[in-house]
Amino acid sequence: MESSPVRTRLKEISVPKMKTKRGAAKRFRRTANGFKAAQSHLNHILTKKSSKRKRQLGAMNQVAECDVPGVKKMLPYS
């Protein structure tokens, strides 16, 4: 009796999907010029802060150029 040849299945080799850091996805938004993020210091101890300061802290800020590569790494599909 002859032995049957061994058959091997070819598996498709695929790179796994990259995961988005969920905390970063909630904090940063993609814009045409980079990323924007909300400012800090607007959650508590608001009585000693002036109205002007609180109003200006409510605006979104552009992420610094040196931090953009790290944000891009955390948000691979943005």
| Proportion of residues in helical segments | 25-40%
- Which structural class fits the helix and strand makeup? alpha+beta
| Low-pLDDT windows of residues | none
| Tally of separate helices | 3
Shape: rod-shaped
Number of strands: 3
Average pLDDT for all residues:
91
How far is the first residue's CA from the last residue's CA?
Answer: 61 Å
**Strands ordered across the widest β-sheet:** 1-2-3
User: Major sheet, described briefly?
Assistant: 3 strands, antiparallel
Instruction: Report the order of strands and helices.
Output: HEEHEH
Query: Roughly how many Å is the radius of gyration?
Result: 25 Å
Share of β-strand residues: 15-25%
Structure write-up:
The protein is an alpha+beta fold and 78 residues long. 26% of the residues lie in helices and 15% in strands. The protein contains 3 helices and 3 strands, in the order H-E-E-H-E-H. It has a 3-stranded antiparallel sheet with strand order 1-2-3.
Layout of secondary structure:
Elements: H1 22-27, E1 28-31, E2 34-38, H2 51-57, E3 60-62, H3 68-74
Antiparallel strand pairs: 1-2, 2-3
Based on the model shown, name its key terms:
78 residues, alpha+beta, three-stranded antiparallel beta sheet, 3 strands, rod-shaped
